[in-house]
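Most newcomers find our protein records easier to grasp once they have seen one. The structure tokens are whole numbers drawn from a learned vocabulary of backbone shapes. The record below serves as our worked example for the rest of this section.
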Amino acid sequence: MYSLTSSSTFKLPSKAKSILYVSSVGELKHVIHSLQGSPYLVLGDGSNTIFLEDYEGSILKIGLKGIISKETSNHFKLEVGAGENWHQFVSWCVNNKIYGLENLALIPGTVGAAPIQNIGAYGVEIEKYIETVNYLDLSDMQTKTMNNKACLFSYRSSIFKSELAGKAIISQVVFSLPKKWVGNRHYGELAGLTNPSPKDVYDKVIDIRRSKLPDPEKIGNAGSFFKNPILDLHHYMQLKLTWPTIPSYPVDVKRVKVPAAWMIDMLGFKGTAIGGISCHFNQPLVLTNDGSGTGEQLLQLARAIKSAVQNEFSIVLENEVRLIGKNGPVVL
């Protein structure tokens, strides 16, 4: 058995049967064939996956790298390997004066994981800039390409998280970024910037994230543990009768997004700990591990939060983080 503690930013003690590294699609096909049907789990940087206990299968670490830049008259087209670190890629874009992704700076993880979750922050979701996704279809072991529309992007989800979950492995993502910058500078604390440049937005996003979120190098965490729920207007207006200060962000004419952190805070969970697992004192959407936590303690705290939110707000929170037990995904 091989330790997984350093393969997940949450750093719970856990092991796997083996850890296999692949740096090309050819290697990926070979490794999957060699496993002969035994269980395995695909892993990038481990920033959105928590191993609750020892996993009785193998781990495939995706290390496909490379950034190829092409240009049209109006756009930059970037072909990026799935194993590239996301923040390093965003920084590369800013340093090369290719703009649009700066609101997504400092999000942990890999480029290949970005479409699966349809990562987003500060008013921008990655689907806006994805042209195509290249992947290995595990049903016939052929590499295929899917365009933006076919990816079925939605809030923190895509076809790779639903229909193709466990059936496809992303190898490359192709981005299309306009040469004329049309950034989102009006979301949250970014609205306080006066006439910002893309680099100003990039720097501000990094400052905000570092001030609010714990550094996984210092304390184990996997970023936002829960998704922000999306409510229909009727539900939201009913909640406002009891909670008049409940914040919201419009999704469309019929729905709004409500911050899960606000609800968790209102219910008094900020700073709450069970063993070595805590609800972060500064950002209650983040659960942390002080190094002594266990998978059972994490489930106990997460389920307590989920139950309390459902009882008070009639909202069922969904975990954004992937939870893995000995046989695979665990339902919260």
Summary: The helical segments are 25-35, 86-95, 113-117, 198-212, 233-242, 260-266, 295-313. DSSP finds seven helices and 21 strands in the chain.
